[in-house]
From TrEMBL:
Region (Disordered): 1-22
Protein's recorded name: Nucleoporin Nup133/Nup155-like N-terminal domain-containing protein
Gene source species: Rhamnusium bicolor
Domain Nucleoporin Nup133/Nup155-like N-terminal, chain residue ranges per copy: 66-371
Predominant subcellular localization, coarse grouping: nucleus
Localization per record: Nucleus
Database matches in SUPFAM superfamilies: Nucleoporin domain
Length: 1027
């Protein structure tokens, strides 16, 4: 195996990733060659690796380079009603069909030697866009074939519309040069176009008409010749169906209907001919095609009886019943040397709806016979209304392994091992196709692009071998890399960084990369104030690193450890977040975190906390819908940034690159709002701008605070820092250009002066009141954090008095609107509790009551009073969380909602009409119970919630070999597990089982042995937890 790489490197930064500059040295190779795919002998990465998902035995990782921008945009912005499909060819090209758009790109170059294809810098990632023929039906990638004609370096393409209009591009680089021809298919719909190298393509219709399409040059002009491949007479060679039933046995109604095409498979022979298999229904045609002789039909075989009898012997041999009750399907076909392997499925609805799958090897040389029958240890559930749920599998063969896949899963089947299923859980992700590329299984994921499946054992073996060569990249690193999106840090050489950069920041970066590789750095970092400054400075550098994959950025600037190869800004931000997470883990694992003490910076001793919060703020800000005021704020904010728009870079590119200055965006948002308030806009327009600005600011900062609360343990200061009794003032509460406290105070004043004062009664006013309360909470939250950091110090009393004074000032403006508000807290609270007509009015009165109480003097009941109001606001949130379709089902007005009593809220959360309700919704129903004062009614509803959770599942499982796995899939179990995880008391969580099953609605389960058997482990589990 050739492991030589180019050695002539120009002088460059060692931060430049090798894999991106030496693209010609990359290889796309099978697992047995995987060492050279990602790492050279010296341990330098030659490919950016991303593990997308992982199971106990296998993992899915990104394959090759990122998708071309045109492909990414098409997948991202495709209309939800547009059919998007993709296909991967073995010749190195892949394509996506989106509406009438055909997008073709080269994902690997032609190999220079068998098994070791070399990538070129120029051709890879270039994308060609072609226009497909007009059609009333949806175009699909299966109706396109891309190939390289003999003597040509440029790819050619043939596409056909579902109606049979062929379009041929002799060279896709010349999109305007086409040949168009219509095939007379007599109204049949085209199903697939299968390439036959050197001959053309096989066009097949859904009802099994097969046509050989050959591109030719006649008189200097490109033409298409279409030649139907005809069987002697029908699929059975002139034998009637009645006669065929006598020979092959009775054929079920399922298979006596019109035969539908399953798959066309072309297989090259060593003598230059091609074997073409056409599988339709249960019939198999075998053709031989060549460039010199006419096509030859070798055989036509009926496989139904052979498949059905094999399933009967393997699954239902000991069952009473007729074999004719077994329905079978042939799902896909692949070649295996001189044989073929068929993926088949079978179900006996008289026994159960469980679908069984098998891989069946057929010999097709003389007579078609079964050589081997492998029943797979996987099953599905057949639904007559949606048969595709269990019958949509395709499969690939790669060595001794098989890969079964559908839109959401890949199941790896290996000899002598249990099938291992990798599931793509994202609702937006779909597997659009699969192929074998140089003995490597490749799939096209709508979200992740090209991916491949590898064994965890192979991963361990690769890196064990590499460890012996002086490179140690542990499996744990790759477990942590799940979801990491093209981070350049994995391609950097720590030795080069260590030797080239002797400054402290460079040394720390080298130590960080050594840590990722599980190596010990030879550098010894000093324990002094320099370390603190360097840690924070490196954090800032990481946040501000330029994107690695965007050509618009200055490539003279070195790539950093936070650089991303993604072309989308949001993904770049998410990648920086992941890199920052790795960096913080490095600080913890290396012991540096405990050496941090203090630094003359605002956020120290936990200076690194501001960085995750800023990246969180940037991600939330980028996720918000575009608005004019946000665009104006970003334009003003980047005036303070180092980079400038130009070379195609937009304001957003600049703004979201320098994440450390994201707070400037919030400051400028408020400034733009203030400018609008002093402009010639009318009061209603100003109030609306104040409202819109509040929505943005509050959404971003509330997410930041939520992040802080969820990760508070991560940023606990070191013991050395605690001894210094330093102030902690988060950037959300800091004054001046480095914080947003001044901006929040200004927005607070604008909300009152130009929002509430200028707005009459209505929804806008109610929203502004909510915003006023939320802004008050934000400001006070920051002051409270500062106050808590100086407890038990001489400054505590002074700052506490200042805090109380500031709190009074923040709420005092409301007295100008309603002078007697401060004495009306109880009245407002009582009115809110009695309010039944308007949920919005109740929420507003509760918020005002809370403000009035906070503005008044402290009393002994202040704390409990506020907690009581917060509790009622929580109940309102429960109602607001209910989907509109559930409320409308029961006749509730969703535009002007009335107050729904707690008992009715419980019913709404657990009703059958709430089809999307899961364990979280049922947990909310349990959380509403304390609001019900009637104890008897509360107990009754408690039982009803658990009974409804049980009845959401059928409990009619046929196979109980793995009871715990079955239980984990039930709503009942998931609700129990969630409740315990959220702190519920196991002793009072579940009612007694006898009480649960006493009700009439549970009558069917009282004698259900399966239910009794499955529910017992839960009882035992609770017994263990109670102990």
């Amino acid at each position: 195996m050739d492991r030589s790489f180019q050695s002539s490197f120009s002088v460059k930064s060692p931060f430049s990733p090798r894999s991106r500059q030496n693209i010609s040295s990359k290889r796309i190779i099978p697992p047995s060659f995987r060492k050279s795919s990602r790492l050279s002998v010296s341990g330098k990465s030659t490919q950016s690796v991303q593990i997308v998902l992982k199971s106990a035995h296998n993992y899915v990782e990104r394959f090759g380079q990122p998708l071309p921008v045109l492909i990414t945009e098409a997948l991202t912005f495709a209309d939800r009603n547009t059919v998007v499909s993709a296909r991967i060819s073995e010749c190195g090209y892949a394509w996506v069909v989106c509406g009438r758009r055909l997008l073709i790109w080269q994902y690997r170059t032609t190999s220079s030697a068998p098994g070791t294809p070399q990538r070129k810098h120029g051709g890879i990632n270039q994308c060609f866009e072609l226009q497909l023929p007009q059609s009333d039906l949806a175009h699909r990638a299966e109706l396109v074939s891309v190939f390289i004609a003999a003597g040509s370096n440029a790819p050619s393409c043939i596409a056909v519309s579902p109606e049979g209009v062929l379009r041929y591009w002799p060279a896709v680089v010349h999109e305007g040069v086409t040949v168009e021809q219509t095939v007379d298919l007599q109204g049949q719909e085209c199903d697939s176009l299968t390439g036959v190298e050197g001959l053309g393509c096989i066009l097949a219709t859904t009802t099994c008409t097969v046509v050989l399409v050959q591109p030719q040059v006649t008189g200097g002009r490109h033409v298409l010749q279409c030649k139907p491949l005809r069987t002697p007479s029908g699929w059975l060679g002139g034998i009637s169906k009645r006669m065929s039933s006598l020979i092959f046995g009775p054929i079920s109604n399922e298979h006596s209907s019109e035969t539908r095409l399953v798959r066309v498979l072309s297989v090259p022979n060593s003598d230059g001919t091609w074997i073409v298999y056409v599988l339709a229904g249960h019939s198999l045609q075998k053709w031989i095609l060549s460039t010199s002789d006419a096509e030859q039909l070798v055989s036509v075989a009926e496989l139904h009886r052979l498949v059905r009898d094999s399933f009967h012997a393997a699954v239902w041999d000991n069952c009473v019943g007729d074999q004719a009750e077994i329905d079978t399907w042939l799902l896909d076909i692949q070649s295996d040397k001189d044989n073929i392997i068929v993926l088949a499925a079978a179900v006996n609805m008289q026994m159960s709806p469980q679908v069984h799958y098998a891989m069946i090897s057929f010999s097709t040389n003389a007579t078609t016979q079964i050589r081997d029958f492998l029943l797979l240890k996987m099953s599905g559930l057949y639904r007559e209304d949606k048969p595709s749920d269990s019958l949509s599998y395709r499969f690939l063969l790669c060595g001794t392994n098989a890969y079964l896949y559908n839109l959401k899963t890949i199941t790896v089947v290996k000899p002598q091992e249990e099938p291992d299923t990798l599931e793509f859980n994202s609702s937006q992700d779909l597997l659009l196709g699969g192929s074998i590329c140089v003995n490597t299984p490749i799939f096209f994921s709508r979200i992740n692009g090209l991916v491949t499946v590898s064994s965890n054992e192979q991963l361990v073996g690769d890196y064990m071998n590499l460890s012996m060569m002086g490179t140690s990249i542990p499996v744990e690193t790759f477990s942590e890399m799940v979801g990491v999106n093209n981070l350049s840090v994995y391609n950097m050489d720590p030795d080069e960084i260590f030797n080239a950069y002797k400054d402290t920041v460079g040394q720390l970066k080298a130590a960080f990369i050594f840590h990722i590789r599980n190596q010990q750095s030879s550098t010894i970092l000093g324990i002094d104030s320099t370390l603190d400054k360097v840690v924070v400075l490196m954090c800032k550098d990481l946040l501000d690193d330029i994107p690695a994959g965007d050509p618009r950025w200055n490539k003279d600037a070195p790539l950093g450890i936070g650089s991303s190869y993604s072309m989308q800004v949001l993904h770049q931000l998410e990648d920086k977040q992941k890199a920052l997470s790795l960096y913080l883990k490095f600080l913890k694992d290396s012991g540096l975190w405990n050496r941090l003490s203090a630094c003359n910076m605002r956020d120290m001793p936990t200076a690194t906390e501001s960085c995750p919060k800023k990246i969180t703020a940037a991600i939330v800000l980028k996720s918000l819908p575009n608005s004019l005021i946000l665009e104006n704020a970003i334009e003003k904010a980047i005036e303070h940034f180092e980079s400038e728009p130009g070379n195609g870079l937009t304001n957003q590119d600049i703004f979201y690159r320098e994440v450390s200055k994201v707070h400037r965006g919030i400051q400028e948002l408020v400034t733009c709002c203030e400018d609008s308030a002093h402009s010639d806009l009318n009061p209603a327009q100003v109030a609306q701008i104040v409202h819109d600005t509040n929505e943005i600011v509050l959404t971003v900062l509330n997410e930041v605070i939520q992040y802080r609360n969820q990760n508070i343990e991560t940023f606990i200061p070191s013991e050395e820092a605690k001894l210094l009794n330093l102030d902690y003032l988060p950037w959300t509460a800091a004054n001046g250009v480095e914080g947003v406290a001044d901006a929040l105070l200004l927005q607070h004043a604008l909300t009152f002066g130009y929002g509430l004062k200028l707005t009459s009664q209505g929804q806008l006013r109610n929203s502004l009141l909510d915003h006023f309360v939320a802004l008050t909470d934000l400001v006070l939250d920051g002051r409270k954090c500062h106050l808590e950091s100086i407890k038990n110090t001489p400054r505590e009393n002074i700052l506490y008095k200042q805090y109380c004074s500031d709190r009074h000032k923040l709420i005092k403006p409301l007295s100008n609107i309603r002078p007697k508000l401060f004495v009306a807290a109880d009245t407002l609270h009582n009115l809110a509790r009695e309010e039944a007509e308007s949920l919005t009015r109740q929420k507003t009165m509760l918020s005002l009551s809370k403000l009035a109480k906070l503005a008044g003097p402290n009393t002994t009941d202040s704390k409990s009073y506020i907690e009581n109001i917060n509790s009622h606001l929580e109940l309102i949130t429960f109602q607001e969380d209910l989907p509109d379709y559930v409320l409308q089902e029961f006749g509730y007005d969703t535009l002007k909602p009335r107050v729904i009593p707690p008992k009715d809220l419980v019913h709404l959360y657990i009703c059958n009409e709430y089809t999307d309700a899961g364990e979280l919704e049922f947990k909310k129903a349990l959380d509403i119970l304390p609001f019900i004062e009637d104890e008897e009614l509360r107990e009754e509803l408690h039982l009803k919630i658990w009974r409804s959770a049980i009845l959401r599942d059928s409990w009619t499982y046929k196979n109980l070999d793995y009871p715990l796995e079955i239980l984990q899939g039930t709503l009942f179990f998931r609700l129990v597990d969630l409740s315990i995880a959220l702190g519920a008391n196991p002793n009072s969580l579940l009612p007694p089982l006898d009480t649960l099953t006493e009700d009439q609605c549970m009558q069917d389960l009282q004698d259900n042995k399966n239910f009794q058997f499955l529910i017992k482990p839960v009882t035992n589990m609770f017994s263990d937890r109670k102990c």
